Amino acid sequence: MEKQRKRELGTAYSQSFRRMGIYQIRNVENGKILVAGTMDLDGANNRLAFMKQTNMNTVFELQQDWNKYGGSTFEFEELDSIKPREENLTDRSELKKYQAEVDALLELWLEKLQPYDEKGYNRRPRSN
């Protein structure tokens, strides 16, 4: 019975929505930021906390300053979130719609904050 219950909990978790949106990782030493979008804001925050705890960085853009200042120099800040229209995910194709919303919101924040060059860690978009 316990296996069945675990399976049910796992299914319920995989069908539930996580908080999704836009965040920045700020270097408090020099003010540079990395702006990113995610389908799981809490997961992104937890990843940064884990990286700081273990002093292991997996974010390539931050690597040079991480080595110079250390992980404790970086802070997670939520910039914007998207509210799911439903409580549970019944159709996996819904994720694509939410991902498109996250991508559009990220473009707006990148335009607003311009986290490029000396201001940030994001790569400047290529002009067409």
In percent, how much strand structure appears in the residues?
15-25%
Helix content: 40-55%
What is the 3D form? flat
- Category from helices, strands and their pairing: alpha+beta
Distance between the termini: 58 Å
Provide the gyration radius in Å.
17 Å
Mean pLDDT: 87
How many β-strands, per DSSP?
Answer: 3
Q: Name the CATH class.
A: Alpha Beta
How many domains make up the coordinates?
1
- What letter string, H or E per element, gives the SSE order? HEEHHEH
What is the oligomeric state here?
A: single chain
- Look up the CATH topology: GIY-YIG endonuclease
Q: Name the poorly predicted regions.
A: none
Task: Specify the CATH homologous superfamily.
Answer: GIY-YIG endonuclease
Question: What is the correct CATH architecture?
Answer: 3-Layer(aba) Sandwich
Brief characterization of the structure:
With 128 residues, the protein is α+β, with helices and mostly antiparallel strands.
Structure overview:
This protein is α+β, with helices and mostly antiparallel strands and 128 residues long. It has helices spanning 2-15, 41-54, 63-69, 93-113, and strands spanning 20-27, 33-38, 74-82. It has a three-stranded antiparallel β-sheet, with helices on both faces. The longest helix is centred in the C-terminal third of the chain and has 21 residues, at 93-113. The protein is flat and about 55 Å long.
